Every structure is written in C-alpha cells, then in structure tokens.
Model the fold of this input.
Amino acid sequence: MKLKDLALCGVFAAVLAVCAWISLPVLDIAFTMQTFGVFLTLEVLGGRRGCLTILVYLLLGAVGAPVFSGFQGGLGALLGVTGGYLWGFLATGLTYWAMTAALGPRLWVRVTGLALGLLACYALGSAWFLLLYAVRGEAMALAAVLSKCVIPYLIPDGCKLVLALILARRLRPASPKVAV
Done:
C-alpha cells in the first residue's frame, strides 16, 4: 500500500473512534454513530482499504485504546456481550468488499453490500450475544435478543446508511481513487 493509503486508513480509524464516542444511552445498548462510521469508511475508501481500516480500529481497541463506545478498549470490550457487533463491523466490510469486487461499484451494488453487511453484523452480534448469555446460564430467546439488540436499531442504521452515502459522495472526489 502507498503511504497515502495508510494515512487514509489511519484517519478513518480515528473517524470510527469518534463515531463510537457519539453515543445516546437510551437502551441497554446505546445508540452510537459507529455504523455510520463503518458505512462512511467503506464508501470513501472502498472495500479493501475500508476492511483494513476496520481491522486497525478493532486492533487499536484490542490493545486497550479507548476507541469503542463509552471510551472503552481492551479485549474485554471485544469479548463482552456486545463484542460480536464490533466484530460484525468487519463482517460488514468483508460483505461490502466481496459484493463490489464481484459486481462493480455501481450504487445499487454498494447499497446492497452495505445493507447485507449490516445484516451480517446483526447476525454475528446477536449470535455472540446469545452464546455469552447461554454460557453465563442466563439463556435468552432469539426473539428477546432481536427485540433488544436489532429491531430498535433498524431505522436509525438505515438513516445512517443513507447519510453516509450522501456524505461519501461529497468526500469521494477529495480522496484518492477508490480501488474496489
């Protein structure tokens, strides 16, 4: 990778951290702008650089940098009950990258890639949530997990996706050519 690509990955890893810090603690799991940051990163940087950026963000958090919501960091955040959703950001990136690499960077492909990636994030995060509660002996039904961890976030995440598309359209001309 070129130095410019590495610098962009670093800048967008910081954007992901700032988006995580923007939090509205309404439910047990706070509303954050993390998914917006993931969508924006992928839309501006493309799948390959976007996935690398998300991985850097997760690794920064793993070593203890307070980059996650609530200024959390460390393996405890990545392995805690909501850690699956953090790993799901990488699943979102990989889904987006696979779709845009296979079908090209047309708008409908990018939107579908982000939406399917978000579903992958929800699936991974919810499965992790279910598993950890089961291990603790506090098993929850899938419907309870979905009503707590997914359904309240569908509309806000859809809005974040649209907002990221609009903002990325304005930022993309200023960034180096996106390689899918």
